[in-house]
Structure formats: structure tokens, C-alpha cells
Amino acid sequence: MTAHSLPSEIGRILPDLVAIRHDIHAHPEMGLEETRTAALVAAKLREWGIEVTEGVGGTGVVGTLKGRLPGRRAIGLRADMDALAIPEQTNLPYASKNPGIMHACGHDGHTTMLLGAARYLAEHRDFAGTVQLIFQPAEEGRGGALAMLADGLFDRFPCDAVYGMHNRPGMALGQFGIRKGPAMAGGSKFFVTFTGTGGHGGSTPHLSTDLSVIVAHYVLGLQTIVGRNISAFDPAVISVGHIGGGDKEACNVMPASMMVAGTTRHYDDAVKEITERRMRELASGLAAMHGAGMTFEIDWLAEPLVNHGEETDAAVAAASAVVGEAAVDADLPATGGGEDFAFMLRKKPGAFIFMGNGTAEEGGDVGVHKPDYDFNDKAIPYGVSYWVQLVRQELSLPPG
Fold this sequence. Notes:
The protein has 400 residues and is an alpha/beta fold. The chain folds into two domains: 3-184 and 304-394, Zn peptidases (Aminopeptidase); 186-302, Alpha-Beta Plaits (2-Layer Sandwich). 34% of the residues lie in helices and 27% in strands. It is built from eleven helices and 16 strands. Helix 2 runs antiparallel to helix 4 and helix 9 packs across helix 11 (380-394). The radius of gyration is 24 Å and the shape is elongated.
């Protein structure tokens, strides 16, 4: 059986996998609360004769699968399990049964595809070495990768390399994309609060600290950081998404507190340092200039995802073996989205690939994190096949 025949071969177990995906989709769970999903994953792995460890990093699950051929090399395959706090609007028969929570990013599909690969590999152990099947909790900003790493992930489950995958709406079914080096952004949420005396904006504004002036200067000043403190050759983003203070029912009152909040993106550690330092200095300087107080908080949610060279080549080779070279973009443009798999890539060499969720005609172009998004079941055979081929390729016996 060739790699090109894998998607059709996976079709044999596809109905079971679709049923699993729909079940997970109907019962979404937030990060570090994936008790039902984790129990389902563990039960399926045990059913297929795979060694299982539960509770890794909270609700994470790791399945350890050894090939029937001798080999010391081990690779990790990672899928995420958590959902998002978004009310579902798909009207699907398997729509979320948990109000206000849905699988709006396809993690139900990611989990299902890795389960499919686990089942197939357990039935066809024609590889040399060990596969660590990593089912990660809390990818969506709750620190699941860091939690697993802090729980000794790679000490307890050794890996020579680790690989991840994510669906991509709008990319045609049967297509893959990846790039070497920085592929996804690091990012943060920031919260800056300016404080003053407050007061009447009509009769005695001269006796008050006008925080709106400070906020206005701060919002404008943030853009000078990207334009003048960071090289034009280093991508960076600072965006304000919230300005709050006062009450519209008392708009003649100057507020005693105003907040500016937003997000940042970077692809380089030096840019990260400059961004945080200058944002803090700008806020402190404006507050001092106008006689106001200031608090500055920045929460770095993700580091830049940097694909390693050899492992990216391996991912391209595996995907190309399944769908053909023409269907694999090895120089996919970097994205401003974040992914906490980046933390695993800082510990081990590896690569993160995107897989097509389908075009509009294929029913898979609705963007992630939208209330009408749904993972495309037609993508499952391609994702499973990629995982299987990657294992066979990376854990094959050396010549002779």
C-alpha cells in the first residue's frame, strides 16, 4: 500500500471517526476542564491496545505506541482538545449541548484525526520506535502546553521531535501548507489603567486630571513604537481593542479612572522586549507629565512558533507523499495568529503544518473562532493519512 492510497484506506474507519468527532463537538469543554473529552480519548486508546497516561498537565492525555520493529527513535504527535466560549450558531444536529461553549477552532477534528492515526497505527505497527500521542488541553490561552511541559512531558515521554497540525478554512481539501522559521506570531493582551482625581467637566475641569487627554496621546503614541522603535524589517503589531472610563449617563463627569487594553504580535524575542519596554515607558511618561497615576499589565499568551528546518522538510515530505508535491505549499506566508505549540517547539525540534478545511464549494471556508464554524469531516482522511505517513517515514528502519 502506497502513501497515496492512505486516504482511501482510512475510509474504512471514517464512519467511526466522524461519530467520535460529532460526539466531541456536541460536548465541548473549556481549557483545563476537558474531563469528558480526555476520558473519551483515554478509553479509545485503551480499546486499541495503546498504553495510556492521564492527567498530564491537568487534563492532558498521552498514548505511547511502540512499533513491532526495533528502534530507539521516538516522535511526538500533538492534538488540542479544548473549545471556546462562543455560543454556537450552526444549527447542526450535533451542535453544542453546552450553552455558550463550542468547538469553533476545529480542535474536535484535530483530536479525532490523531485518534484515527492512533487506531490505524495500532493495527499496523510497521514502524521502528515509539510514537507519543499527545492530546493537549487548554490551547486557547489557558496555558495547556506550558502545563504539560511543567508536568515533565518530554522527560516522562521522550521525543526526538514533535509535530503539530491545524486545519485552515479556505484552503482546499487535500492541500497542506507550512514554512520554515517563524510561522506564527507571539502575542499578548495588555491593560493600562490611568488614574486621577476625576471631577466636573463643565464647571471645574481645571481642578481635575483629564485622563481622556492622556489616553488619546497614549493610543496615538503606541503606533510610534512600531513605526520608530522597531525596525521596518521586523513585523510587529500593537492594536487597541478597548477604551473604557466614565458613564455615558454622566458624560459631564470626568472619570477618575480610564483603561486602554489591546493586543500585540511579534515574531522575534528582541521585538517583544522593545514592545513591552516602550509601552510601559510611554504610559509612565504620559502619566507623570499630566500628574496622573498608572498601572501597566501585559500578559504574554504565546511565543512565536518557529518551525525547525529538518523537521519542516520531514513534514513536507510526508504531506507530499500523501497528496502530491503540487498540493503542498512549502513557503506558506506567516500568520499573525498564535499557537501555544510554540512552547513545545522551544523544547524540542519539530514542525507545525496547516491542512485544508475546504473552500466555500467544499463547505469549509468559514473562519475559525466564528459562531457558524464547523470542522469539515471530509478533511479527516487527509489528516489521519499525514500522521500515519509521518510516522512511517520518520520511524522507518535505516538502510541495511
